[in-house]
Specification:
Distance between the termini: 155 Å
Helix content: under 10%
Order of helices and strands: HEEEEEEEEEEEEEEEEEEHEEEEE
Number of strands: 23
Structural class: mainly beta
CATH class of the largest domain: Mainly Beta
CATH topology of the largest domain: Immunoglobulin-like
Oligomer: single chain
CATH superfamily of the largest domain: Immunoglobulins
Length: 327
């Protein structure tokens, strides 16, 4: 027969209670390690342009300790908060990395952190961003007429780009007798002015370039036009005048231009000497003849029509105002 003292019974009950699955009991778990506290200066990332050519970017930064003893981890993401879609590099001792195969037209964000030989780390650097732009712009001619009225004419065009934007558009032409296209010039705005050196059929095309250097490539022409033989009038001074536009567009035949006496062949009357009433030579009250009259600021001048046919223009000052009196 087993005998238990009161003290033994109490100890036995306490032992049983300690082994029970009581809901108040909590198993012990190891305390997790806390994240390391940044103690290094963050690397200094170089700024990026708003748009970058191609589908890759070289990310560069400066060593905060300037000793080259750090390793670096770089990340990129389309999410400016870096909560999703993160791509990370391996730890590297280099102060630059290349991110390739970047998606076209989607802004990318980049950051970098450092650690030293003792595994002390830095904060993340300031974020830099850029948008990959690998697509060239597109350009085209607008409403190019099949026939022109002069050797000199304007070429309208338009160009567009979904990324960095169009910065310039080149105009290229080829005469029907030539094998190669010739670049006429670079234009920021439409229209471009083209002066043909000879008549005939011309093929034209435009090539645009965007802000990061992407250039348009075209295997075909945009359009063609025919430039007429010029109609030239030579005046008495030997100067040639191109009247092709007037003759072809408005039907003005060359013989309708008169004898072509040339510029400055009829000299104007400059600062004429005028007679005041009661001066010798001033017309009598009963004399009658036609005049051209000008009155300005209380001053009046009259010019006899009979004096003008061979001069046609009088340059004068009336009421302190310069005037040109044309016959």
């Amino acid at each position: 027969m087993i005998r238990f003292t009161l003290a033994a019974i109490v100890l036995l009950l306490l032992a049983v209670a300690g082994c029970s699955d009581s809901p108040e009991s909590t198993p012990l778990t190891p305390k997790p390690d806390s994240d390391p506290v940044p103690t290094l200066d963050a690397p200094g990332l170089q700024a990026l342009a708003p748009y970058s050519p191609g589908d890759q970017i070289t990310l560069q930064w400066t060593d905060p300790a300037k000793e080259g003893t750090h390793e670096y981890l770089a990340q990129r993401s389309a999410d400016p908060g870096f909560t999703d879609g993160i791509t990370s590099t391996d730890w590297t001792s280099s102060t630059s990395v290349v991110f390739a195969d970047l998606p076209e037209g989607i802004e990318q964000h980049f950051r970098v952190m450092a650690r030293d030989a003792d595994d002390a780390i830095s904060d993340w650097s300031a974020i830099v961003r850029t948008t990959p732009d690998a697509s060239p712009p597109q350009s085209r001619l607008l409403d190019l007429a099949e026939e022109q009225y002069s050797l000199r004419f304007q070429v309208a065009f338009e160009a567009e780009d979904s990324g960095a934007g169009v910065v310039e558009t080149e105009l290229w032409v080829r005469h029907e007798e030539d094998r190669e296209f010739e670049r006429i010039g670079t234009f920021e705005n439409s229209p471009a002015t083209f002066v043909a050196v000879k008549s005939g059929r011309y093929e034209l095309r435009t090539l645009a370039r965007d802000g990061v250097g992407n250039a348009e490539i075209k295997p075909t022409v945009d359009g063609w036009t025919i430039v007429p033989e010029p109609i030239i009038l030579t005046d008495r001074n030997g100067k040639e005048w191109d009247i092709t536009n007037a003759a072809l567009r408005y039907g003005m035949a060359a013989f309708r231009w008169g004898h072509g006496i040339g510029q400055h062949s009829i000299p104007p009357v400059i600062a004429p000497r005028l007679l005041a009433p009661n001066e010798p030579g001033y017309p009598e009250d009963d004399e009658r003849f036609e005049v051209l009259g000008v009155a300005i600021n209380g001053e009046a001048h009259a010019y006899r029509m009979g004096d003008l046919p061979n001069r046609e223009v009088v340059d004068d000052v009336v009421g302190n105002v310069p005037v040109a009196v044309a016959y």
